[in-house]
Amino acid sequence: xxxxxxxxxxxxxxxxxxxxxxxxxxxxxxxxxxxxxxxxxxxxxxxxxxxxxxxxxxxxxxxxxxxxxxxxxxxxxxxxxxxxxxxxxxxxxxxxxxxxxxxxxxxxxxxxxxxxxxxxxxxxxxxxxxxxxxxxxxxxxxxxxxxxxxxxxxxxxxxxxxxxxxxxxxxxxxxxxxxxxxxxxxxxxxxxxxxxxxxxxxxxxxxxxxxxxx
Length: 214
Prior knowledge:
The protein has 214 residues and is mainly alpha-helical. The chain has a domain at 19-50 and 73-133 and 154-180. It is 53% helix and 7% strand. It is built from 6 helices and 3 strands; from the N terminus they run ααββαααβα. The chain has helices at 7-13, 18-47, 73-100, 105-130, 137-141, 164-180; strands at residues 52-58, 61-66, 149-151. Strands 2-1-3 form a 3-stranded antiparallel beta sheet, with no helix packed on it. A hairpin with a 2-residue loop joins strand 1 (52-58) and strand 2. The longest helix is centred in the first third of the chain and has 30 residues, at 18-47. The chain is rod-shaped and about 145 Å long. Residues 8-13 have low confidence and may be disordered.
């Protein structure tokens, strides 16, 4: 005895749940965001203005001071990182909209927010690690002689710029979905209930057929 399985039944048996595409989308965008964090860290290290300091040794104690206490170098470092983060958020939002607006829109939005803030923190750490002393001022100034100058490690004094990346990415993604996103399928029209069809009217005053037994 053999049992035939129709193609529709087999397809339903292998159908994936609705959340599968959302999880895959979130994972893919998370990896892409991490790669973007590496690039942002490299670019930030290359374009950020340098802030220099001076080493002073007195009484056997070594101290480090800024060459210009009113320097705008820290503002420039914050601003350059903000620009890099905004550009990364814009590009990731465009990628998410172009590739995942139909496959996993919810997962894309969650990845742009969650992975975006994680990638922003990673980019800040990685850019500082690429700089002098791998982000440690003690490592930089340790071998600097008296009255010698050195470049301070990169740092963010305004940590609020970290949130620009995910905010811009999610905001642009929702804007694109609102303006150019796929339209909702039209709701099926309700079929009107058929009106009951009555038989032809019968005149009850007319005499019926005569009984043949009479």
